[in-house]
Each structure stands twice: as C-alpha cells, then as structure tokens.
Amino acid sequence: MARSPRIRGFTLIELLVVIAIISLLISILLPALGEARKTGRATICSTNLRQFGTATAAYATDYRDKLWSFSWTPGNTPSAYPDLAAAAGNDLIAAGKQAIDILRRRADREDMSPMDNWIPQILYNHLVLNDYMAQRLPEPTVSCPEDRLRLEWQKNPKLFDAGGITPGPDDMGTDQGKRWPYSSSYESVPASFSPDRGDAANGYSSVTQASSHRFYQLTNAEKSGIFGRRKLTDVNFTSQKVHLHETYARHAAKQALFYAYPERSQPLLFFDSSVVTRRAGDANPGFDPATPSRPFPIKFDLLPGKWEPPAKGAGYAGDQGFVAPQMTGRFRWTRGGLQGVDFGAKEFNTSSWK
Asked: CA-CA distance, 77 to 86, in Å (whole number)?
C-alpha cells in the first residue's frame, strides 16, 4: 500500500530567517520608494513652472509683449460687478479689484469683497493667467506638490474659511482671509510687475521689501502708473534672470527652507521659459529698488507664520530676546530688475542710478 507523502513544516528558526529577510528587503526598498516619490513630486513642480513659462510666451504674443500681471488702472475697471466697476484711487486699488473680480467669476466667490492694504501681485499674480486660460479656481498647478498645507486649503476653501484646516494664516476666518486658498507656492519676481527702480526722491515708484519676508511696501504710494506695464522685451538676460520661484525650497531635503538660504536648491523658471534647478547661494545678492545706487544687498528678517516651515537659525539669545535670521534678497530682488542678471555673470551696475 502506497504511503502518502509527508508534509514538512517550517521550524521556528527558518520562519525567523524568512521574516528577517523580508524585513531587510523592506528596509532597503522603502527609502528607495520614498526617494522615487520625492523625485516624482519635484518633476511635477518643474512641470508646473514650465506651464507658467509656456503661458508667459502665449500671453506676451496676445497682449503686445506684456508680461502677465494685473492690468486694471484707476480709470479702467471693466467689471460687471458695480462695487468693482467704480473708479479706483490708484493702481494698487485697481489691481485688488481685478483680483476679486477674477475670484468671483472663476471661483464662484461672490462673497469676497474688495480689500485694503493688499498688494495682490504677491502670491496672487497668477490669477491673471488663470483668467486668461479660462480655468476654474482653485487651480492645483499653481501649488508645488510638496506644499501640502496649501493643497489642503485648495481642496475645501469653505472649510478653510471656517477655520477647519489648521494651521492657518493670522487672518483666517475673516473676510480678507478668504483669499488664501487661491494663493500660489510660486512667486513672480517684483520686477515683472513693477518698475526696476523705486527711488521716490527722484520721482520713481515701485515695490520693495518691508522689514520681514512676508511684507512688501510701495516706495511712493501716491504715484500711479506703477503696475502691469512690464514687457518681455524689457528683460536683458532671459536665460539668466529668474521669473518665478518658490517661496520655500522643498525638494532638496526633508525640511523645507526659505528660498534665500544659500545652501538650498530649487527649480527656477527663467524668462526664456527654461526651468533649471539652481542653488540660491550661486545667485547674485540683489538690491533694494528704493535705493538703487546703494552697493549693498537688500536684507530682511525671516519671521515665519505658524503655517510656514520654521526658520533655520532662529531662537532666543539672552537679553536680545528672539533673534530672526536675516536673509539676502537674491533673485527676488535682482539688482537692476529686468535689466539685471541672477546667475552666470556679475551683477548689473546701478551705481549711476542717482
């Protein structure tokens, strides 16, 4: 009579060996998968910037070489909304009305009112392109895929309005705070929407940096004719001058850092529509358009809000209290504005701008 074959089981030692091998494989593969995902997000970020570059060229072709930015002026506020169609007092008010007009039409935000003390070109300049391309808002491609908090705001703006997505900006839950889910990870350099120089004593006006990284000011608030008049042909070195950059460099390490830390690299959109990853420390230091002939670079404090990545090097120093890192402007504040250069050559000489 034939015997049935014996089925041999695993010994405890063999089972432990198999588990150890599987654990080892997981420990090897997981970091590789994590790096692959991170590389994929960096690629998406670069693609977002390339789309901005393509749109820049198309917009310039359709609008007589103009760089995209808010274009309404005090005497030209062509809105279907009566409160927005009323004449504006200056360029800044007109630009704010245009931003709200776009948000009402493209994001169904009829509940948003005109705002005071707002430079909408900062973090919201892209709304002009969204409108040009007839996109519904919020548009995910204006945010870096590593900017997870802003993407959460975009997914549910009404929940954000109610304070249901934290952390958030200081004005979250107010009427003015409703704008944040429509902001961008990418900043247009100020020279793309305001004049290269802003020395008010000589009759010029432009945007310049205030004392900390999130705040800007006009060098001469009473002067009109400031915004939305720059052209692509105003750029002298299109392959060496940054057009858009992220506020925070997010791809080079686990911890996002403010763009101006010299050791940080990030993908940058240049005015020739190329996207190149460059190290901030390799860029020229920049200048203050309010004092263009001054040879020293512009400096400002990095004071992150509770929704922003923390600052490296910040802390308390005895009797000095809280000490904020001081940043150099670099490609946000290129010396000479659109006439200047960020990478690959010395700074433009503005010593004669008196």
From this structure: 7
Q: Please, are residues 323 and 267 in contact by the beta-carbon 8 Å criterion?
A: no
**Contact by Cβ (8 Å): 209, 269:** no
335 within domain boundaries: yes
Helix (H, G, I), strand (E, B) or coil at 47: helix
- Domain extent at residue 299: 37-339
- Segments of the chain assigned E as strands: 186-188, 207-209, 216-218, 242-246, 248-249, 257-258, 265-270, 275-279, 299-301, 315-316, 322-323, 326-328
Beta carbons of 98 and 71 less than 8 angstroms apart: yes
Q: Is residue 344 part of a domain?
A: no
Cα–Cα distance measured from residue 195 to residue 217, given in angstroms and rounded to the nearest whole number: 13
- Residue 120 CA to residue 179 CA, distance in Å, equals 10
C-alpha closest to that of 85 among 101, 71, 99: 101
Tens of pLDDT, residues 171-218? 999 999 999 999 999 999 999 999 999 998 888 999 999 999 999 999
Question: In this predicted model, what pLDDT tens digit does every residue of 293-333 receive, in sequence order?
Answer: 999 999 999 999 999 999 998 766 555 556 889 999 999 99
Q: Are 109 and 103 in contact (CB under 8 A)?
A: yes
